[in-house]
Amino acid sequence: MEGDPLTHRRPLRRPGLVERELPGELVLYDPQSDRAWLLNRTAAAVWDLADGATPLAAIAAELTAALGVPAEQARQDVLEAVRHLAGEGVLVRGAGTEPGGG
User: How many other CB atoms are there within 10 angstroms of residue 63's CB atom?
Assistant: First the structure.
């Protein structure tokens, strides 16, 4: 892997999902596949900030500020959340993201 994956990746929320907020969590539902995902606070924050233009480093910085999470923990949590959500097809590649990059 070349470079820092937090520098170049800009995740984007997949359109067409229904969101429902619960205390401390967020439920995403895909009416086409009848699948649902329950996101914790960290994953919900990543989802909320995944606009296709914001790099992961900025998302991690926002988590540090908003949730009071140490910077390195926020960095690891963001990477883990993005990998999981992208693997589930909930997040897609946003602008400026290199295919095959981090």
Answer: 24
Residue-wise pLDDT for 53-65, tens only, equals 999 999 999 999 9
Three-state secondary structure along the chain? Answer: CCCCHHHHCCEEECCCCEEEEECCEEEEEECCCCEEEEECHHHHHHHHHCECCCCHHHHHHHHHHHHCCCHHHHHHHHHHHHHHHHHCCCEEECCCCCCCCC
Q: What tokens appear for 76 in the block?
A: 């690891």
Is the pTM higher than 0.85?
no
**pLDDT, tens only, 31-90:** 999 999 999 989 999 999 999 999 999 999 999 998 888 999 999 999 999 999 999 999
